[in-house]
Amino acid sequence: MTRQTVTNLMTPIGDVLAAMGTDGVLLDTVGHDPVAVLPLDDELIDYLVERSPRMIAECRRLRREMEAGDFVTHEEVMRLATPTGN
Fold it and tell me: Which residues contact 27 (CB under 8 A, 6 or more apart)?
């Protein structure tokens, strides 16, 4: 990860992303804490989603609904999705 000093906070984000490369960049700005900018890849997205409080709460809600029998099977969805409904 490279380190880049940003002296002008109006620097276009495109310039920052172009300098980032594939490893990310640590941005230093005057008067602010450093900020790490990481490129999104599947592993990072999975890591963030798995730890999202909203995602965890939604999964728990869906699990409760499924345990209560409040769901539609794949076969039912496919039957509803066909033009004839058969």
Answer: 4, 5, 6, 16, 34, 35, 36, 37
